[in-house]
Amino acid sequence: MGYSTISSDVLRGYIDLMILRALSEGDSYGYEISKKITEISGNGYTMKETTLYSAFSRLEKLGYLHPYPGTYTGGRERTYYSLTTTGREYYQRKCTEWDLTMDLISKFVKEAGHGHN
Amino acid sequence: MDTIKTYLDNVFAAFPQTNKVQTIKRDMLTGMEEKYVALRQQGKNEDEAVGIVIANFGSVDEISQELGVAITSPQQDITKTDDTASVITMSLQEARSYLSKSRGVGYAMGIACFMLTIGISTALITQAAESIGVMIPLVIGGIIIMLITAYRASKDFERYQKANISLAPIDHMILSEDRARFKIQSIFIGAVTGIAVLSLMAVALEGHTNIPFIIAVGFTFFRLPVALTTRLGYDYLLGNWQYKLGRWTYVR
Fold this sequence. Notes:
The complex is a heterodimer.
Chain A: H1 8-12, H2 15-22, E1 28-29, H3 30-40, H4 49-61, E2 65-72, E3 76-83, H5 85-116
Antiparallel strand pairs in A: 1-3, 2-3
Chain B: H1 2-12, H2 19-41, H3 46-55, H4 60-67, H5 74-81, E1 87-90, H6 92-125, H7 128-156, H8 158-161, E2 164-167, H9 169-206, H10 211-238, E3 241-244, E4 247-250
Helix pairs in contact in B: 1-2, 2-3, 6-7, 6-9, 6-10, 9-10
């Protein structure tokens, strides 16, 4: 799948949606979230580290994610995230927005298709 | 895995070391290391795994924008340090070719040193009358090679003299590792050279003639300029480096 050809400008608006979706099934941490996103994409897309971690910081500031420290084997610390109630609401809004976006843009795509026929 | 840590250290070197920055850096390191381990378990070798992890790193600008950290633009800084200096952006391949050019000068100088060593030590050890036919061409040949090499090197390296070199962080790191390996080698070469000089003096004082021994000493003196020019090459490439906006820039 050629997801890598999608312009990063197009994806930028939906990075948050992907991360919130990955957290919708329970609390998680950086690598697991990244893995989940790749999995959901059908192994066609991997989010860049800087994209992922700057999004955590942004979503945390907006109050959509709640970070808490946790440890794992070896006694090292890492940050876990849980989805807040406003985070869930935001996710729903983004999903609706995407449906509308797809609805709008697809009209143009189809129109263009008819033009060729 | 150290490569990943060094990579992140370099990337975050230009950031103010606030708690927020340190937490992000720690979480990124943990995440990247976990990804590395998973790739190794999938059968990737060390280099492949590090390559994939670093290729998926992304862009530092995303982090600095999110954290509201201002990193000074490289143009401003270069004008501050040197108005006339140009910047040569080097790929790893170009940096390595620079090193091998620099080492090439060492080889030529090494051959000259080899000839001079054999010529002079033959003269010292044997009676001059017997060996003059061997000695004179060797010494003169050695001096000529040295002069030609020095002249050619001064022309070849002219363009690098005034320029600043810019290397990508990953290339800087790879070369730093090469340099560390080379340093261990050069300590060994240094030790061998020291022993060779002392032995040569001892033999010269006793007045024995030992051709294989002289050749061995000559070979040691051949290695010496090679080690020296390689070292100078690395020092030039990796010397006074400052990390600016995701790239290492050489500042004189």
